[in-house]
Amino acid sequence: MAKNNISCFICSECGYKSTAMMGKCPKCGAWGTMEQEINQIKTLPKSGLVVPTSVAVPISGLDAEEKERIPSGIDELDRVLGGGWVQGGVTLLGGEPGVGKSTLLLQVCAAMAKRGNRVLYISGEESSGQLALRGRRLGLMTDGLDLLCESDLMSSLAAAEQNGYKFMVVDSVQAFRADSENGWAGSPTQVKGVAAMVVETAKRCEIPTVLVGHITKQGQIAGPKLLEHLVDVVLLFSGEQNSPNRLLRADKNRYGSTEELGIFEMSERGLTAVNDPSHIYWNGTDLGSSGVAIAMTLEGTRTLAAEIQALSCPTPFPYPKRTARGVEVSRLQLLLAVLERRCGISSRTSDVYLNVTGGLTLKDPSADLGICASLASAAMDIELPADVCFIGEVGLAGEVRPSGRTLMRVKEAARLGFKRAVISRRTPKDTYPIDVLKISAVREIIDLFLRR
Ligand code: TYD
Ligand code: MG
């Protein structure tokens, strides 16, 4: 190899870089995925010999007008995007194969075409016949939506540029090849090359563009993990295999917040928005069993009722199990330690299982109180009243801290039929639509609900 070439190996699954060739990726554990990439080192000219061609401008003198948003025609998506697409903005939509990325985008394309935009759907994965069949079944046959199904991305992008499309989808980044790069379609070098071509066209022609990227089982965006810095928005579309619910989140958003959550349901009519999300995670059934608690959590600007279930089961082994789904195991361990030291509820001789129903992942710290209530109820095997919900963050001292937007959460609880909400005593005074029980420490839950 020439002296000024540098070679490294990149894992096509997770993007891990190494200077040595390895059979197994040390980061994601995949075999045979390390591929060689050769980069040329260009020597920089000595300073003083370069004539500056660009001029720095003062920030105050710039036109900082908000760019006009182009609604996607699907409210749930617009909420996650922060109002709609931005001219020339490139969005990466990641998700596991089969989660519904193509379905969602075909629906978006049809909705935008119905609003009078000319839209192009470039697919390297499906034939136009397949797409049209899906379109007919979902009632998406509309003027203004064109399909281009071929593997030559260069010519597809040229077609998009010449015909003045107002929105474009490229499905998927792993299906196309960039002639300028070596390697198979889907390899890291190719994925970067394809994305660079799409981004360049989108920016030059000011077409809002969505690039689809498949994610591998490990949850990494295969290849596209390498693309996050290239695109303006990264959206992740996820769902449990046996559940119709699909969640859409922004991982990165140069034009808005990354806190919003879009909730869809996959049915034979395609993806439909879920307008009352609380009911998909909490169905209101009361089996009267211990270990079940409801936390009112916040996802972006929306309140959800999350059903938390805990099971505590005696074990003869010295190292009891701690298993959690929907909550990080470290958070479960921390809250178990708080319960042991601050409330005297020990789980040392029990396996503890924790589950948030409906495939929801709880990141909101205000769900701590609900998790503690559920764990305490499971450990003591006493059920909690069905008309109570919990809102609050729990500290290591066992104190209950106030949560943001408590009133909004209590209002949602009232709408769902709860009669009482447990909140922190330090929450600022307000008028609540239902009874609120103010507590300072987690152990007060035991006095309130868990005495036989
Ligand atoms: P698809 O959009 O092709 O997934 P992706 O592009 O992310 O790989 O969706 C495929 C899955 O969606 C498939 O398993 C069937 C299901 N599906 C429905 O349940 N209803 C529908 O109306 C459609 C079009 C798909
Ligand atoms: Mg697809």
Characteristic terms for this protein:
binds magnesium ion, alpha/beta, 452 residues, 10 helices, 4-stranded mixed beta sheet, binds thymidine-5'-diphosphate
Report on the structure:
Helix 4 runs parallel beside helix 5 (188-205) and helix 7 (329-343) crosses helix 8. 24% of the residues lie in helices and 27% in strands. It has 10 helices and 23 strands. The strands form 6 sheets. It has a 9-stranded mixed sheet, sandwiched between helices. The chain is globular. The longest helix is centred in the middle third of the chain and has 18 residues, at 188-205. The chain has helices at 75-81, 101-114, 128-137, 153-162, 188-205, 278-281, 329-343, 368-380, 406-415, 444-449; strands at residues 5-11, 17-18, 34-40, 69-70, 85-86, 90-95, 119-123, 145-149, 167-171, 209-214, 233-238, 245-253, 261-267, 270-273, 292-299, 302-314, 322-325, 350-356, 388-390, 393-394, 400-401, 420-424, 435-439. With 452 residues, it is an alpha/beta fold. Residues 101-102, 125, 171 line the site of magnesium ion (MG).
Low-confidence stretches: none
Structural class: alpha/beta
Q: Distance N terminus to C terminus?
A: 77 Å
Count the beta strands: 23
- Rg, alpha carbons: 26 Å
Mean pLDDT: 88
Beta-strand portion reads 25-35%
Separate helix tally: 10
Instruction: Give the cofactors and ligands.
Output: thymidine-5'-diphosphate, magnesium ion
> Strand order within the widest sheet?
8-7-9-10-6-11-12-13-14
Indicate the percent of residues in helices. Answer: 10-25%
Specify the overall morphology: globular
Main sheet record? 9 strands, mixed
